């Protein structure tokens, strides 16, 4: 796999986050609920330097609810609070300030014990890989659209705090993390969910990966969507997976001359519908 973030780019991203850590009490680490492993930065513990953290499993509306539950338990075992939510519609978002308060309770209690009557609001920073929903969540928490101009070159803007109720404040520009691409499966999973553009990889290979996974774990909703009759018996037989892709292509009219299936068009259709949740809810990684 040739995809690599330039080391300089990573160092800069990391430095920017660490500068922001000085300003805040709590980190909201945003991950994709369908990919709780691959959508995290593998160096996250090191980068956050022990800051209190809530793991927000965004796009939970698209993920398999049973698998999401297993992940919450897994994170709990690791000593982390994980909160599933859907920033796009706002479901679960109101629990975030509540969880933040719970996590910071000891610190707030200490301030109260010292006679500080009105402890200042909890200051938080959202971090996550591109496309995981950082802007959507910031806008949702702010209750309005915040123009994300801060990280654009040439645009100078001081840090702005966004009030979330009376007890929490959020930095208006999120910390951008990078996923780890060296493992080919991680690259494919990120591409399937739309976290990285499939153009970076080969669209047919990405769709092949998705179809193989759906056949194995979510055959019924997939077959229902495209009225597929025969489940491939041999998953390791590429021809059988390609035959499923062709059946989808025929169903959706992705044809070339001579009635042959346009596999690239079929691949785009599969990925578009999958990402839009048209084949039901799915998770691509389980903790066990
Ligand atoms: P980023 O700042 O982390 O880069 O991500 P951003 O908020 O731009 O969100 C990336 C895409 O994910 C957007 O879709 C957004 O609508 C979608 N999204 C964010 N949160 C959720 C969620 O909880 N559930 C679902 N289903 N989608 C979510 P887009 O196609 O790029 O744009 P648009 O169609 O919303 O215009």
TrEMBL record:
Subcellular localization, as worded in the UniProt entry: Cytoplasm
Pfam family, one: MMR_HSR1
Keyword Hydrolase found: no
InterPro entries per UniProt: G_CP_dom, GTP-bd, GTP-bd_ortho_bundle_sf, GTP-bd_ribosome_bgen, GTPase_MTG1, P-loop_NTPase
Every CP-type G domain range: 14-179
Entry keyword set: Cytoplasm, GTP-binding, Nucleotide-binding
Function: Required for a late step of 50S ribosomal subunit assembly. Has GTPase activity.
Protein family per UniProt: Belongs to the TRAFAC class YlqF/YawG GTPase family. MTG1 subfamily.
Stated name of the protein: Ribosome biogenesis GTPase A
Gene name, Swiss-Prot/TrEMBL: ylqF
């Amino acid at each position: 796999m040739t995809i690599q973030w330039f080391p300089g780019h990573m160092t800069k991203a990391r430095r920017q986050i660490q500068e922001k850590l000085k300003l805040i009490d709590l980190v909201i680490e945003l991950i994709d609920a369908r990919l709780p492993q691959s959508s995290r930065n593998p160096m996250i513990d090191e980068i956050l330097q022990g800051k209190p953290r809530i793991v927000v499993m965004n796009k939970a509306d698209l993920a398999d609810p049973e698998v999401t539950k297993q992940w919450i338990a897994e994170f709990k075992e690791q000593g982390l609070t994980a909160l599933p939510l859907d920033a796009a519609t706002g479901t679960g978002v109101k629990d975030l300030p509540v969880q933040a308060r719970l996590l910071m309770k000891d610190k707030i209690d200490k301030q109260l014990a010292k006679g500080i009557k009105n402890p200042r609001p909890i200051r938080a920073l959202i971090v996550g890989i591109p496309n995981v929903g950082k802007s959507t969540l910031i806008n949702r928490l702010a209750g309005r659209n915040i123009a994300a101009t801060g990280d654009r070159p040439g645009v100078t803007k001081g840090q702005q705090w966004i009030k979330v109720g009376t007890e929490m404040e959020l930095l208006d520009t999120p910390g951008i993390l990078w996923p780890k691409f060296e493992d080919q499966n991680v690259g494919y999973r990120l591409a399937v969910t739309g976290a990285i553009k499939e153009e970076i990889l080969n669209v047919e290979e990405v769709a092949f990966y998705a179809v193989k996974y759906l056949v194995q774990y979510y055959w019924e909703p997939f077959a229902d969507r495209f009225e597929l009759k025969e489940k491939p018996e041999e998953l390791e037989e590429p021809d059988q997976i390609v035959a499923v892709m062709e059946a989808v292509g025929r169903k959706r009219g992705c044809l070339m001359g001579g009635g042959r299936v346009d596999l690239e068009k079929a691949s785009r259709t599969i990925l578009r519908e999958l990402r839009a949740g048209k084949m039901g809810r799915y998770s691509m990684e389980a903790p066990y």
